[in-house]
Structure to design on (768 residues):
């Protein structure tokens, strides 16, 4: 079962449960959709590998090639660099206890780009780089939706930071992430978030250029805005990760259809409630995560949507609760769960709210392509 | 850093962040508290190792000895058996795709006890055991609070199941878990759940004995009921796991004090919101989990309570949101967060809602004992 070699005859029912299942055909179509969209917009993609955390998965959608990637941990950077990926953007604010590890990666030949948003930290980082004669392109994070980190496009801090980095030869440009787009309620909302993301970072870039500072990188991204932006003009790259697998949150936002979801958790029925209103499966929060990303959406999917073993949704049945190794399956209000249909041992699949969070609970993907046949296995890595 | 050997001089600030920190002294005191309680009650403890998932941690609180343990996965069973633990209760409903693995463990010399609650499954399991001449003690799960799996103490299924197993020479007794106790609102509630758990299973045992069926094992447990039960009479063992570490959910239930919490996540400040009302740390849901166990409690702790590097709570500051590698720190309503006090790189610790869920996100514990000195490292295992 190691590597991607499997016996020809392996079927889903031969896997131990719970197990993470990846529909390779769906993933390929999801990748193709974003590729076409960005190609038409004339902007390159920088795949965010925080969702897949698998060199094999990313190589597969790149047709065996390498490409520029974004990472959320230095472990991702090290793993992808070891696999031949040279251009790595560490898209989480840098902390001093990571300086040395970034330096090591750079000395090992990686082109690492880092991110920060605080002046004191920028000074510390500049001193560190000067002492070691390091040239690490450093982006300033811009906050375009008040959701997370970053400086305001119109604020004084932006200029101070860019000048501090620039005088140390480190300033590489700007980055923003429209995390607020996850709260969209309509396609118009998604377009509005994409517009705000792009316009915000362009305001910041324009101000810096007005001060004579070159801004080589203008990096935007999130799966919803990457797919719904009406313009990518003057943006130098788009980051996205969850687009590869999609999930119930993305379907709830209208970013994809339910039949685009490539990731699911294979599970076995292990019992029923005494009153026969609920079913218990062996996918608890260790297999699904505790993510409740669809809770604020119009259509709450609990901890996941139940499917048959082929991945076809049983739309009235959701994971209503999770314990460590138990998932509770209930019917939605007004619907009815016939527990007799699901004796102990029945194999089912669960579509996750949040692909990143569910995948993070597992050490490997088991590949299928629309049938019960297991085509291979791709390893994932965990930790930092 | 491997094993439990560390350089004498290692301090918390030398660890990469995020990192899981375990206060060994607190864990020892928590273990001692339950040990004394159960000793006074005259009932043996069966430690549930699903929380620790570490042979070293469990051996430590057992003073280097082995003992009977409960497990939530067969991987836990295999790991503990390999370390010399012979009596293993697999306390999650059995599924047919795990029969063979249980058989292997049994053949390897483990005394494995399993659990089920369905008649069809019991028949299938009996056939399996007969064909392989296996004698695996099998418990029937009893539902004493309507919360999870199990048959009712007063129902017909209990007798059918026990008779089916008994005629195959497999019936080992009864098990119940007062998961409902997590919804307690007062010490009186906790005592009531403990009473209901014990009385429910004793009703079931009495009925079976009345039919001439011996009931050797009467297994109850959950950390709240283990600590608050007023009587353990006629119970043969108490299972508990989270008592070793305790967590904010347990503190919110009144089961422990905040200063008993042994587990925390070490984290670094990586940025501030543009409006200076929030702080960002490098402990996101990959480090904390998405568990919101204190949300329904009187005192909602967000995704965790912020502490200084020594683990002393900064009681007005909580993790208000989590992204994959970002935790957002906010002040509680009415309080104020002075972001100037926490420049990028500041080391902090976060007390988790749910020890099992937070520990599950990590590959190792870093041991301290009230100071910043790191005393060792214990490996954890993940997966199934």
């Amino acid at each position: 079962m190691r590597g991607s070699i499997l016996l020809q005859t392996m079927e889903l029912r031969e896997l131990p449960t719970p197990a993470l299942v990846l529909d390779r055909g769906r993933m390929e179509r999801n990748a193709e959709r974003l590729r076409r969209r960005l190609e038409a917009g004339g902007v390159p993609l920088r795949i965010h590998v925080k969702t897949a955390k698998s060199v094999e998965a990313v190589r597969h959608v790149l047709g065996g090639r390498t490409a520029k990637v974004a990472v959320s941990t230095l472990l991702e950077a090290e793993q992808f660099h070891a696999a031949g990926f040279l251009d790595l953007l560490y898209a989480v604010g840098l902390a001093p206890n990571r300086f040395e590890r970034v330096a090591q990666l750079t000395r090992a030949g990686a082109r690492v780009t880092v991110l920060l948003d605080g002046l004191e930290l920028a000074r510390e980082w500049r001193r560190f780089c000067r002492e070691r004669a390091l040239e690490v392109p450093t982006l300033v994070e811009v906050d375009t939706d008040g959701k997370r980190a970053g400086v305001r496009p119109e604020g004084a801090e932006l200029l101070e930071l860019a000048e501090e980095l620039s005088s140390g030869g480190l300033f590489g440009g700007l980055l923003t992430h429209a995390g607020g787009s996850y709260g969209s309620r309509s396609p118009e909302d998604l377009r509005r978030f994409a517009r705000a993301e792009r316009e915000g970072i362009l305001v910041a870039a324009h101000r810096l250029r007005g001060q004579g500072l070159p801004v080589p990188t203008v990096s935007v991204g999130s799966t919803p805005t990457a797919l719904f932006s009406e313009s990518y003009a003057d943006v130098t790259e788009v980051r996205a990760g969850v687009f590869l697998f999609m999930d119930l949150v993305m379907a709830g936002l209208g970013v994809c259809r339910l039949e685009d979801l490539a990731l699911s958790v294979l599970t076995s029925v292990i019992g029923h409630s005494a009153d026969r209103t609920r079913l218990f499966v062996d996918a608890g929060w260790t297999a699904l995560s505790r993510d409740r990303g669809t809770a604020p959406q119009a259509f709450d999917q609990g901890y996941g949507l139940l499917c048959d073993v082929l991945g076809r949704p049983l739309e009235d049945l959701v994971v209503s609760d999770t314990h460590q190794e138990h998932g509770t399956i209930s019917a939605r209000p007004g619907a009815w769960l016939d527990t007799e249909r699901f004796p102990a041992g029945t194999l089912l699949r669960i579509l996750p709210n949040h692909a990143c969070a569910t995948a993070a609970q597992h050490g490997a993907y088991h590949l299928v392509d629309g049938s019960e046949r297991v085509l291979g296995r791709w390893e994932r890595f965990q930790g930092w």
In short: The mean pLDDT of chain B is 95. The domain at 258-379 of chain B is CATH 2.40.37.20 (Lyase, Ornithine Decarboxylase; Chain A, domain 1). The longest helix of chain B spans residues 187-210. The longest strand of chain B covers residues 263-272.
